[in-house]
């Protein structure tokens, strides 16, 4: 089923979930209000996952600054990113739904480029690049190591499932309705809810493509630009992967996880001594493989590691 809506009514609901980042959220809303839209109509839905509703005043101020912006505020007081994303989906009424994170900044033609890719390639899902925006205090070795870089592809390329995420995506509302699909609240404090969401969407054989012109940048604050955060994120990724395999119950999936644990730990142990003589970035890559392996074990034994709790 093509993603393109009726030419006379190209409406897009943009969902931005937020949690206690008022400055970044205000910057995002300003950038969305400045989008070059041509015939498109943008409706912005801000989902506040803070029980103190810290984003409410941000949205009220933005509504005064941008009188022409259709802006809706939704409060989800229970901290859980999956519940917040589901509330965003429930608030949508347009044929197209875009997701963007509150710490991201879209280029001026972001939404227009996503829409054109959907139209030109008749796709039901369109993903775009998320480029790191480093804080000035970020260590040079960490930037050079590319730890926050993500793969890019030629526009129109099929989007690989392992790279699918909600940080920069346009979706067909009809596809979501047809699958009766929502984000899994069990992963709402660990992360990985978007990976599972798109895994289930891909099972429908929907068409998912890449749009390299639909660029957004993502702020990398100092508290993330460090080894501790990267290792913690790798550990969480491993725990989610093994927990999902356990939840699906297939013996082949569990066997694959066990083999992956053996491989990651064997490779980590073999590279520990040589890595001590290499660059700091190389050592971190070795330790991240070990952290994923440890997370896989944790997930099998205890379930997901709740990184955001």
Describe, in plain words, how this protein is organized in 3D:
This protein is of the alpha/beta class and 309 residues long. It folds into two domains: 11-220, Spore Coat Polysaccharide Biosynthesis Protein SpsA, Chain A; 227-302. It contains ten helices and ten strands. It has helices at 22-33, 56-65, 81-91, 110-121, 140-145, 173-179, 193-202, 227-248, 251-275, 280-302, and strands at residues 11-18, 41-48, 70-75, 96-100, 104-106, 125-127, 130-134, 168-172, 208-210, 216-220. The strands form two sheets. Strands 3-2-1-4-8-6-9 form a seven-stranded mixed sheet, sandwiched between helices. A three-stranded mixed sheet has the order 5-10-7. Strand 1, helix 1 and strand 2 form a beta-alpha-beta unit. Helix 8 runs parallel beside helix 10 (280-302).
């Amino acid at each position: 089923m093509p993603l393109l809506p009726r030419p006379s009514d190209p409406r897009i609901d943009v969902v931005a979930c937020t949690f206690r980042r008022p400055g970044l959220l205000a910057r995002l809303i300003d950038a969305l209000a400045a989008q070059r839209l041509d015939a498109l109509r943008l409706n912005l839905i801000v989902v506040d996952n803070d029980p103190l509703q810290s984003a409410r005043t941000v949205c009220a101020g933005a509504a005064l600054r941008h009188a022409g912006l259709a802006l809706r505020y939704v409060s989800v007081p229970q901290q859980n990113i999956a519940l917040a994303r589901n509330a965003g989906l429930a608030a949508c009424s347009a044929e197209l739904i875009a997701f963007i994170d509150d710490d991201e900044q879209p280029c001026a033609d972001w939404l227009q480029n996503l829409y054109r890719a959907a139209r030109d390639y008749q796709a039901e899902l369109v993903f775009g690049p998320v480029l790191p925006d480093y804080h000035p205090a970020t260590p040079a070795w960490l930037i050079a190591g590319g730890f926050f870089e993500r793969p890019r592809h030629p526009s129109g390329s099929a989007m690989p499932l392992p790279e699918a995420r909600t940080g920069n995506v346009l979706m067909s509302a009809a596809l979501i309705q047809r699958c009766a699909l929502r984000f899994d609240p069990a992963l709402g404090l660990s992360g990985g809810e978007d990976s599972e969401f798109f895994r289930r969407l891909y099972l429908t054989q929907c068409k998912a493509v890449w749009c390299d012109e639909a660029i957004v940048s993502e702020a990398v604050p100092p508290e993330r630009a460090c080894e501790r955060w990267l290792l913690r994120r790798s550990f969480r990724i491993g725990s989610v992967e093994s927990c999902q395999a356990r939840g699906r119950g297939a013996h082949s999936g569990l066997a694959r996880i066990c083999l992956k644990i053996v491989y990651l730990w064997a490779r980590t142990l073999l590279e520990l001594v040589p890595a001590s003589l290499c660059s700091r970035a190389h050592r971190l890559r070795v330790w991240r493989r070990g952290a994923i392996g440890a997370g896989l074990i944790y997930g099998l034994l205890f379930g997901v590691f709740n990184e955001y709790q």
